[in-house]
Amino acid sequence: MSTTYSRAVPFGATYLGNGRTRFRLWAPGQDGAAVEVEGSAPLAMKRQADGWFDLETPCRPGARYSYRLASGQSVPDPASRAQADDVHGPSLVVDPTSYRWRCADWRGRPWHEAVIYELHVGTYGGFGRVQADLDRLSRLGITAIELMPINDFPGQRNWGYDGVLPFAPDRAYGSPDELKALIDDAHDRRLLVSTSSTITSGRTETISASTPRISSATTSPRRGAPPSISASRRCAASSSRTRSTG
Question: How confident is the model at residue 232 (pLDDT cuts 50, 70, 90)?
Answer without folding.
Answer: very low
